[in-house]
C-alpha cells in the first residue's frame, strides 16, 4: 500500500531542519529519491541532510557534473547522486549505484533515470516551488513499512 504525506516548508531554514531530522534517522541501505523541477530545492535538501551527518560540516557541492559524491559520516557511507545528465539506467549500474543502494545511505536526484533499478523500499521526496518565494511543497511517498515511524517522527 502506498502512503504519502504532504508538508509545506515556508523557508530554506525549515527545509534544512527537516532534512537534518530525517538524516538523523537514516542508516546503510536507506535510499531517498529526490525529485522536482530545476530550482525546486533538491540539492538544498540533500546538502542540509549531508552536512547534518558530518562531524564537521564541509562544503557539499552539487554532483551535477561529477554525477556522484561520496561522504564518510558517523552514520556510514553516504552517496549523493545527480542523474540528470544520464541517458540510460545502465550508466547507473556503471556508477556503482546498484551496490550502494544496499551498502550506503543514498540520496538520488532525478530518480526517474533509474527506471527499473529504483529500489522498492525507497522513500520518495518530491519538492515543488510554490508561488516563486521560499515556500516549498514536499510530498513524501513510500510503500515500505520501515518509513511509517520515521515519517511520523518528522511531523
TrEMBL record:
Q: Note the InterPro entries from the entry.
A: P-loop_NTPase, T6A_TsaE
Question: Which keywords fit this entry according to its UniProt record?
Answer: ATP-binding, Cytoplasm, Magnesium, Metal-binding, Nucleotide-binding, tRNA processing
Report the principal subcellular site. Answer: cytoplasm
Any one Pfam family match given in the protein's UniProt record, by short name? TsaE
Task: Kindly give the SUPFAM superfamilies that the UniProt entry links to this protein.
Answer: P-loop containing nucleoside triphosphate hydrolases
One of the protein's GO biological processes: tRNA threonylcarbamoyladenosine modification
Where is the protein found, in the record's own terms? Answer: Cytoplasm
Gene Ontology molecular function: any one: metal ion binding
Q: Which GO cellular component does the record give, naming just one?
A: cytoplasm
Domain of life (superkingdom): Bacteria
Per the record, the similarity remark reads: Belongs to the TsaE family.
What this protein is called in its record is tRNA threonylcarbamoyladenosine biosynthesis protein TsaE
Q: Which species does the entry assign this protein to?
A: Tropicibacter naphthalenivorans
Amino acid at each position: 500500500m502506498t502512503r504519502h504525506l504532504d508538508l509545506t516548508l515556508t523557508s530554506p531554514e525549515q527545509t534544512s531542519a527537516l532534512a537534518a531530522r530525517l538524516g538523523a534517522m537514516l542508516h546503510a541501505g536507506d535510499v531517498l529519491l529526490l525529485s522536482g523541477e530545476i530550482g525546486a530545492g533538491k540539492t538544498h535538501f540533500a546538502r542540509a541532510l549531508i552536512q547534518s551527518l558530518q562531524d564537521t560540516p564541509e562544503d557539499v557541492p552539487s554532483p551535477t557534473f561529477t554525477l556522484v559524491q561520496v561522504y564518510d559520516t558517523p552514520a556510514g557511507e553516504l552517496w549523493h547522486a545527480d542523474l540528470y545528465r544520464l541517458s540510460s539506467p545502465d550508466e547507473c549500474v556503471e556508477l556503482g549505484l546498484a551496490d550502494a543502494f544496499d551498502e550506503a545511505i543514498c540520496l538520488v536526484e532525478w530518480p526517474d533515470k533509474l527506471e527499473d533499478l529504483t529500489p522498492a523500499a525507497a522513500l520518495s521526496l518530491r519538492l515543488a516551488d510554490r508561488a516563486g518565494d521560499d515556500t516549498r511543497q514536499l510530498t513524501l511517498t513510500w510503500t515500505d513499512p520501515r518509513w511509517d515511524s520515521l515519517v511520523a517522527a518528522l511531523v
